[in-house]
Each structure stands twice: as C-alpha cells, then as structure tokens.
Amino acid sequence: MNKFLPISQNDLRERSWSGLDIILITGDAYVDHPSYGVSVISRVLENRGFKVGIISQPDWRNAKNFTVLGKPRLFFGITAGNTDSMIANYTANKRPRSDDDYSPGSKGGMRPDRACIVYANKIREVFKDVPIVLGGIEASLRRLAHYDYWDDSVRRSILFDSRADILVYGMGERQIVEIAELLDNGENIRNLNNIRGTAVVRGDINFLSDYLCAPSFEDVSHDKENFNEMFLLEYNNMNPKTAKTLVQKYDTRFLVRFPPAFPLSEFELDKVYELPYARSAHSSYDSLGGVKGFETVKFSITSHRGCAGECAFCALYFHQGRIVQSRSAESILEEARKISIVKDFRGTISDVGGPTANMFGASCSLWKDNNFCAGKKCLIPQKCENFKLGYDKCLDIYREIRKISGVKHMFIGSGMRYDLLVDSYAIPYLKEICAHHISGLLKIAPEHSSNNVLKLMNKPSFDVYEKFVKLFKETAHSIGKNIFIVNYFISAYPGSSLKEALNLALYLAKRKVHPEQIQDFIPSPATLAACFYYTEKDPFTRKPVYVPKTFRERKLQRALIQHSNPVNKSLVIEALKKLNAMHVLKKLSGR
C-alpha cells in the first residue's frame, strides 16, 4: 500500500523532513482515495515536488490543533470536505444531524458550522503572515454573494468572512499547482491577479481591463431583482471559452472572480487518477469504527467528471462544469486491475461512473475548444443533435473489466440519466447493463410527476420517465433478470404546492410504489433552485414561482408522498383537509 501523507511530527521525522511546503486542512476524516477532493489535490501537489501534509478535522475550539505540523513554507489550503459543512451538520429542516458518514465512526459534530471560515480564522490567530487558499465545494459555491438557507439571508462572499487570500472554485488541480509554483518562485500572494478558476478580494481594480460588474453586495442583499441579475451574470459566465471576469463591490473593496479554469484533457485527467493513492482511510481510524462514507466508494472508479444535465437544484454546473471530461479506457482498466489485487477486495467493483454514469464518453464538437452553446441546453427540452453519447466505448470498457482476473462483478452505483436511455441507440447499452451491471436496483431520479415542477428543475417531462420504466421492465423481462428501479423524489421543491404533492402521491398509490428515497429540498448556495427559493421568481423569465417555505408545509408535502407510512397518517389527513380532498383518502390507502 502507498504511504499516506504526513499527519504528525512523527511522520515528518520518518521522512527526515524538517518542515512542509503546504498544509491542507479538511473537515473530513483523512481518506487517501481519488473520490476525496483533498486527497486528489494533495497528490497532485506531491507529484509536482511539493512537501504536503494533512490536518483532518482539527478541534477548532483550540487554535493549537492547527499547529501540529508547524508552519508551511508556502500556504495553508482549506476545504470543508466533500460536502458543504452546513449540509453535513443540519437536516433540510435545519435540525442538527446526529451522524456524519465522512467522520470516524460516523460521529457527528467533528466539523464546525461554516468550516472554511472557522478554520481560516483559527489559522490567522496563530500564523498571521501565512497565505491561506480556500477550495472545495463549500468555498466554490460561496465565491460570490449568495443566499444562505441556514441564515435565511444573503451572505457575503466567503472570502470576506474567512479572511483568506485566494479562493479556488471548480475542480482545482490547475489552479492549485499554479498558485503553489508562483509562490515557490517568490511571487506575493496579493499579486495573483489572473489565475483562472480563482477569486480574490482587492482594494482597487485598476489592474483589470475587461470585466463585468455584478450588482454590489449592498444591492443584492436588499433587492431580489438585483440578486437575480447577479445570478444571471454568474450563470452566463461559466463558459471557459467566453466567460469574463466578474467584479462585485463590497463597501470599499471588490470581489474579483476570474473566468473558469479550462477542463482537463483526457491525458491530464488520467494522470490525476493514476497518482499513488493509498486507497484507504488512515489507520488511526480503525479503532474508531472506520469511515462509513469511504466504504461505499472503496472499490469504485471515477470514469469522468462534469455533467451536461444542468439540473436546477444541483451544484455541478457551477463546480464541475457542463463539459464532460472522460478518462481513457486504458486508464480506467489499469485502475480496475489495481483494485483487483487489493488485499481485502472480494470481487465486486461497486461503481464505474461519475456525476451521471451514462454520460461517460459524451462529446460535443464545441467541447474540443472548451466551449458550449450560449442560450441552449444540451438535454432540455430534448437532447441536442450535436450531443453524442459514448455508449459503445463504455460497453467496451465494461467487457474488459469483466475479463480481469479476480473481478466477479462490476456494478453501476452512480445515478443514470433515464432520458438518455429511451431511444433506439440506447437499447444495446440498456440491455447489457441490465444483464451484467445492475446489482438488483437501478437508481434513477424522476424527482416529481408535475411537468411544471420538472420544468423548474430543468428535468425532462414525466412521460419520458414513464416511457423508460416500461422499456426497463421489458428489457429486464427479455433477458430474464429480476431487477428493479429505485426512484428518487424531491419534496417541497419550488413550484410544488400541496396540490402537486397530492398528484404525485396519487400517481404512486395507483402503481403501488412506496418510495423511501425522498429528499426534502435544500437550496444549496449558488444554484438556480436557491435563486427560485430566495427571490420567488425565475431569474430567466422573471415570472413568479411558488415556494413552500414553512416547515409545516414541507412536512405535509413529504407525508403525502410517503402516505403509506403509518407515522404520516395524521399529516396526510391534515393535508387533504387543507385541499378539500378527503375523498381521495381511500385511493391513497390503495382501496
């Protein structure tokens, strides 16, 4: 097994290192696996010759815990972890979570609320002059002023509250190497003024020549029309080819967001995933119950990143981007071979996928030039004729993985985009994955039955889902497989009233579907859905959007969708009385 990076002074002594160039701090347990962002960044930096150490889940109540590896020569890098710390710490109804699968033994409370801000300010207490670089999903989605669901207010860019020097947004391999190499060559952190995929705070913007001004923080925090305008500016400037620098004023200072980083090439992406990861949680967690979140990805392979779907509630458009970047077949196969000889591997590769499993190998002629269409989506209202799927290449890889000695099963654990599985070109792909790569349950996300709600989600119309379900059942029957669909739904999404929730409940009751996978809507920072939630308008059309905001209505909508659960009986009756629809109670009961 490859060695972990240093986490203690003993580790430094073992390597005969007197100090570190870079120290990375994470809100997750230290897992050296390519599905963990801090591990990828640490290995990328190590590969460039830098000495890197990791401080995982430091107790933020004592600043001394941030000094365990000493003072880095170049900078501290901070991430809240694989999820936003507020989502990790609180339920959709803002109640504290009791557990955290990214922590040892799934113990809750191991990371602070707003972890990036807390960690950065603790470092400032003890190392006043060391540069601080923010990264990861929490920082990325909070790079501009943003609506914060937990405060129910518009907050400043996270750069201001954290007092960090620079923020890396999106997938950060290019940016972090450029920052490290510039600082290593003697550049001052305050002079890093043109790195793509970063944001900084400046006292003046005289160094800029071509930029767009977003409404100021003062304007967006007091006027929802200005907030919508800010959202559109950010949304329309996510194309790496055409995006401009954005500037947002905060009192006497300016937030400067440079254009997005260019996506990695196939060769570059291969190199990232071929770095010497230990592919394990640190041994210090063994006595604490291990890291549950790691167990689900331990024997998985990331085949691609990016998603062309642009679901309104999803952060991927603003973090990984719309351009799908896929690894080469040989790189994926080599990783499968490495997994097959891991000591505790039992023969099952749990996933070969990415944000959307069946987008591996997808392409568009514009993507070759780091470009995509303005004002037009890849999949909605239907798949663009220039959006090509990589099903043949994908199946070739699956077949080769099945031939590897020691591999008994290779499953698809990532979600599938079902609207890409209903046309004739997808039939061979669907048949083969049903025959060999579904462990019994296929994950898909219809999300809702209301076409008005689905439109606000940027999802296909409901008849596409029904067409897929029929095709899936026919396919499974034709090959003699006893496999099923797991449906994921979102309750209390913008546009959904109790009426829409009831219609979904009636649809499910008629088909005797009893969904367990219900997600209460959370407006993640920076997303289109968060914009709907806060402004109660569609920023593209400026038309009003109904938003269920009270916890009571949110609870009633969920209860309707899960009407078969006896615990929800009184809530279902309350909802039906509000709708003057007690006459449908028997239908919900299946009678």
From TrEMBL:
Residues 293-564 form the Radical SAM core domain. Binds 1 [4Fe-4S] cluster. The cluster is coordinated with 3 cysteines and an exchangeable S-adenosyl-L-methionine. SMART domains: Elp3. Its cofactor is [4Fe-4S] cluster. SUPFAM superfamilies: Radical SAM enzymes. Keywords: 4Fe-4S, Iron, Iron-sulfur, Metal-binding, S-adenosyl-L-methionine. Signal peptide: none annotated. It comes from the Bacteria. [4Fe-4S] cluster binds at residues 307, 311, 314. The keyword 4Fe-4S applies. GO terms for molecular function: 4 iron, 4 sulfur cluster binding; catalytic activity; iron ion binding. Belongs to the UPF0313 family. This is Radical SAM protein.
